[in-house]
Amino acid sequence: MQELKNAIRERGKVLSNDVLKVDTFLNHQIDTELMALVGKEFAARFKNDGITKVLTIESSGIAPSFMAATELQAPLIFARKKKSLTLTDNLLVSTVYSFTKQESNDISVSKDFIQGGDRVLIIDDFLANGQAAFGLIEIVEQAGASVAGIGIVIEKSFQEGRKNLDDAGYRVESLARLHDLNEGKITFVDELVS
Ligand code: G4P
Ligand code: NA
Ligand code: NA
Q1: What's the predicted TM-score (pTM) here?
Q2: In terms of DSSP bridges, do strands 103-110 and 119-127 run parallel, antiparallel, or are they unpaired?
Q3: Taking residues 158-168, what's their average pLDDT?
Q4: Which residues approach ligand 1 with their CB closer than 6 A?
Q5: N or C: which end of the chain has fewer CB within 10 A?
């Protein structure tokens, strides 16, 4: 998606060989116009897949998924993050390990909001190691619902997540794919010269 790639190049900041800072439009300040375009692009890619629910995770997944859900005329649900959950009776819960933070967190969704028969589009801002995506998949599958696919705003293709989701047979639609961030330079997968 060209507008997104322009924003990443012009307004993103490479912090290291594996971290891209996008606080100017996605993770702190939100460029609402760009996020509306992002959401519309997800919706266009999944418009024929019978999506009944859009599922994301707080907090940075909410903005890019809002317009997708609007266009698909489906409710938007965000999984909640909490250190450890005790009252889990009415909750779908999975555990997500963050390599970045080196800690595990439970994520949860009320059973009231995803049910058997739902066809769910999962959306997140970043795909790194895929822990969040697999946690959301587990929640959908616990509910007896099915995963239509995973929409990602920025995929770091040099980390494991994309490959692991492909290997597990899930459809992944990433709007920008980073080949690498080496030497402070942003290289997209589709711009590689071979
Ligand atoms: P994974 O789910 O793919 O395995 O990723 P990981 O544990 O490494 O990610 C932990 C947090 O860091 C997530 O946000 C994720 O979106 C974010 N993240 C991963 N790589 C990058 C990156 O290169 N740049 C930026 N800006 N963020 C990255 P979170 O802690 O869940 O926070 P929130 O922003 O959704 O509240
Ligand atoms: Na996120
Ligand atoms: Na984030």
Answers
A1: 0.96
A2: unpaired
A3: 98
A4: 19-22, 27, 59-61, 98-100, 125-132, 156, 161
A5: C
